[in-house]
Amino acid sequence: MTSKNKELWITNLSKVDVSLADLNVTIRSFASVNLLDSRHYSITETQANASIKSGSIYKKRDKIRVRVAAPPPAPAITILQQETSLPSRARSGIPKLVPLYEEYNVSDEQYAEELAETAEQDRKPRHSRNQ
Fold it and tell me: What is the pTM of this model?
């Protein structure tokens, strides 16, 4: 705890966030925090020691642990890139064959007439009740 940059690391070991009321700090679940970090907190060493001896850190010692040293840095996440067997060129060397269907060569007027016939059939009841 005594070094050039003073550090006081605590770790929340519980599944819930823990509030340290006397320090006005909330420690997230499974997180380690340096309480004497002046960039994030404005806590003095005497406040932290008082909390450890008889304050909220002492009361919640079943959830909060004071660390002797800083936690190890998290390993860098690397993105794995797998080589694929697909060709990388933009155009294929194989010509694309588009089949031509004669059934689809219908003019707009013929298509409209066919739709009109099916619309008339849809309006008629399927089964007559008078039979």
Answer: 0.54
